[in-house]
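Figure 6 in text form: structure in, sequence out.
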């Protein structure tokens, strides 16, 4: 979830040598890290489509393949053939005529998402999963467990109810281990393939979805490994 890298740009001198604009010329190591399979998916849980970002320079930026699969799910991306990163950090998907099709922005620690138009995520692909979780789909009873155990160290109810700011609520179902209880978690949110549990003071506990649909504690959180497991 918070592991998606923001790309930097080369100096203008390098851009001049390669024939690429400064906004298109990305650091080689970071460019390589960005390459791979991505899911563009509506935030409402509707079907999205998988595309592959390459490091091959093309008109408008770097090569993009597989967009023909977007024709039904996200028609706006059906003719995508390139991606680029602007000086302002905006990730843009373009067609062969260098026309912008969709632009994504990224707040620190969050996935890429559209700033305008249909709310949509751009996420590193998880296998063949073609949609993101929704609040209604995730709401219910869950348990935080240690990877090696089957007994919960904290049972939680993730509610679909929201406060005035649109934040969804959570509440403990019984006693929790001190390490979780002391966090005083009261809110939860979805960020792409991730679930973030939050307290009023800004404390967070984040879980990332795996290709099999389970949730593990985000590596960026640090601390001991934990799992978030759905309960009956």
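Output sequence:
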């Amino acid at each position: 979830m918070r592991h998606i890298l923001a790309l930097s740009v080369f100096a203008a001198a390098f851009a001049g040598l390669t024939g690429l604009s400064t906004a298109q010329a990305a650091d080689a190591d970071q460019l390589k890290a960005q390459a791979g399979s991505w899911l563009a998916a509506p935030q409402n849980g509707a079907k999205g489509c998988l595309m592959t970002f390459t490091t091959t320079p093309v008109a408008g930026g770097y090569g993009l393949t597989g967009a023909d699969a977007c024709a039904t799910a996200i028609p706006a991306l059906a003719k995508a053939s390139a991606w680029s990163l602007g000086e302002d950090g905006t990730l843009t998907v373009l067609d062969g005529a260098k026309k912008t099709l969709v632009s994504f922005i990224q707040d620190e620690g969050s996935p890429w998402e559209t700033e305008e138009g249909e709310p949509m995520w751009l996420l590193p692909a998880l296998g063949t999963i073609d949609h993101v979780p929704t609040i209604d789909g995730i709401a219910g009873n869950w348990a935080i467990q240690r990877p090696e155990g089957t007994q919960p160290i904290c049972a939680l109810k993730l509610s679909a109810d929201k406060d005035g700011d649109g934040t969804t609520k959570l509440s403990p179902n019984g006693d929790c281990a001190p390490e979780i209880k002391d966090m005083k978690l009261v809110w939860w949110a979805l960020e792409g393939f991730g679930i973030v549990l939050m307290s009023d003071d800004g404390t967070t506990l984040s879980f990332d979805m795996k290709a099999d649909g389970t949730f593990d504690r985000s590596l960026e959180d640090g601390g001991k490994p934990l799992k978030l497991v759905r309960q009956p």
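Caption detail: Helices lie at 12-18, 28-34, 70-73, 135-138, 178-181.
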